[in-house]
User: Fold this.
Amino acid sequence: MPHLTATPGQTIGPFYGYALPFEADADLVPPGRPDAVRLHGVVTDGAGAPVPDALLEVWQADADGSVPQSPGSLRRDGWTFTGWGRCATDDAGGYSFTTVRPGATEAGAAPFFLITVFARGLTNRLFTRAYLPHDQTALDDDRLLAGVPAERRSTLVAVAEPTGYRFDVRLQGADETVFLTYPGH
Amino acid sequence: MGMTSQADLSAEIAAIESDYRSSGHDETQPRLDYPPYRSSLLRHPTKALQLADPETIERWAPCFGERDVSPLEADLTIQHVGEPIGERTVVTGRVVDGDGRPVRRQLVEIWQANAGGRYMHQRDQHPAPLDPAFTGVGRCLTDDDGTYRFTTIKPGPYPWKHHHNAWRPAHIHFSLFGTDFTQRMITQMYFPGDPLFALDPIYQSITDARARERLVATYDHDVTTHEWATGYRWDIVLTGSHRTPHEDDLGDDH
Ligand SMILES: [Fe+3]
Assistant:
């Protein structure tokens, strides 16, 4: 049991755009790299309208399943994989990361991108997982997915595309994305 | 929606807080669904959050180091030629986890309006002057005790188009990382005694008065420096860490 009560979160507000983005923030690897994949999608609200003032962060294992612990995300050298990136949505609510496929952190585990969503109008951050769609056995065995109602599971699984993956984030509505909370939150 | 009066909005805020008080529940975080903050209406999840057992990647956080952040970025008053206008102030405190352990060598990012309540951002249309000597963006790494420290200018309150005559209390936006990614958070720090607290639907989206006060810094004369800057202290508690001591030992090998 934690002894201290956590400080409350607050909305990111509308004016982070000159503060939080940085050069190559969404390029965890350079776009030209042979093993580069694209992780992209659109953030929409309860009316289906794009959210042009959201900020997404991705945090993931390296292709071999190891947890990156190298500094350098804010000043990328083009060679070091730091596992973390940030992307503000565009006017159409779109975001796009250039990265590598995360590997399984344990044998048999279903690999996923961990995604954090901030937005004006969102009073606190939201977490979700974008699972890779390839290994159906691993997805079937995944404990989190098993606990999600079957009709909502697909909101947690990225869609394979020739260049990578598409993962849309629906903040509200019939096909609302499953968002996560963790013990102690 | 732009023309709701402050009195009507304040009545909505008061009704929710009164319901909360009589509920007997204990809330420590803002409500995602908080109708007085109109921008939240279509942007909050309507379904319950799914409880997840943190997996490996969630029990680690990205590393930042000297190559990411220059020590100069912690002083927002020296980023341009000339001195910014306003009250020079130092904001410092500790970042700790739910067990009180310091969050060491981790990234803290801030952004804020200038002394006149204006952001250096294209979308900010408030007709207060921009200050060419002040951008309002800072970064630092916590030290081995979890302490961060920024030198800045006290931000002014600013109007927003949320309802008629809507004003935000003066605040500094803070972005924080922990040792686990599940501790990631963005919040706002306020200054003590702001008369706008009661009127602000963002501050009041935290329905519990004690929880709200955790966002308010304390004036600290020991942080204030002779003939230079006033000082405020604000400590930050992140949600508990899920990493076991065994995993922490592995982390020391890196
Ligand atoms: Fe603000």
About this structure: The pocket of fe (iii) ion is lined by residues A 13, 15; B 171, 173 (CB under 6 Å). Residues 249-254 of chain B have pLDDT under 50 and may be disordered. The radius of gyration of chain B is 20 Å. Chain B touches chain A through 81 residues (CB under 8 Å).
